[in-house]
Design a protein that fits this description.
Strand order of the largest sheet: 8-9-10-11-25-21-20-14
CATH topology: Beta-galactosidase, Chain A, domain 5
Largest sheet: 8 strands, antiparallel
Strand content: over 45%
Oligomer: single chain
Number of strands: 25
InterPro entries: Gal_mutarotase_sf_dom, GH-type_carb-bd
Order of helices and strands: EEEEEEEEEEEEEEEEEEEEEEEHEE
CATH architecture: Distorted Sandwich
Protein name: DUF5107 domain-containing protein
Shape: globular
Radius of gyration: 18 Å
Number of helices: 1
Organism: Tenggerimyces flavus
Number of domains: 1
Length: 295
Amino acid sequence: MPVSAVLENASLRAVFLPELGGKLWQLVDKRTGFDLLWQHPSLAPRAVPFGSPYDDVFFGGWDELFPNDVPEVLGGVARPDHGEVWSMPWEWSELSPSSARLAVSPGVCRVSKVVTLDGASLRFRYRIVNEGADPLPYLWKPHVAVALDDDSLVELEAGTMLVDPWGSPRGGLGGASYTWPYAVGADGVTYDLRTTLPSSSGVSELQYATSLERGWCAVRHPSRGTGLGLSFDASVLRSCWTFASYGGWRDLRVLVLEPCTGYPLSVLDGVAAGSHQVLAAGGVVSCDMTASVLS
């Protein structure tokens, strides 16, 4: 196990792995003893070579993805799968018993986050600076793999959703747009996308909120009386992606919450469509986010 950095109080225990992309590995609701984050059942966290295929070493937890998702040439540089910062060792320092700073400099950009433990919440202050001389098309998103129960429910404050053609989405919804949370599938059935599915369903789906009513997403676990909610600045993180595998991707059951600066998977496609952005030379992106335990 890589070296860990721990923030802990009577309500919450947060375990970070700075050497592995500043990953938040565990987030335990101490009231229930439930770890709100998902960890791969057979892959242990370890340092991986830069440029590794993300899916092959997806251990779980909470990663930071920048400046891309799918491999692309951005700013004249070939960017690896899921970006540059998730596999790099981050510098970190303790600011106080309840606060820490983590930072990494991939290429000419510097990505940092200050994390503060406040009761049953973790407060994040993010800052990305383009220290180079050229503009950089980019996306940035926290990639939060969430543990699931049989009755877990997804919450979004979203308007229009777009289902990516990838995978095997329920109801044959790939490529469809709908208004959250109800979608009519190709089979004529109305689906409630708040519901999660058993592994036996064989479903895998990726979707994007193309409009947000508020910067909020969550997964609740009613039978456990807990859940994880993310609140964020929707003027910066203008979309929210959800990736879900209910047995349909590598036989895993996991849901990933991904508030993002834009959509879709390709940054270059998004820039052309006006749904991804360009970080100017000397430009700064900053955003606050709060991860809260829900009762």
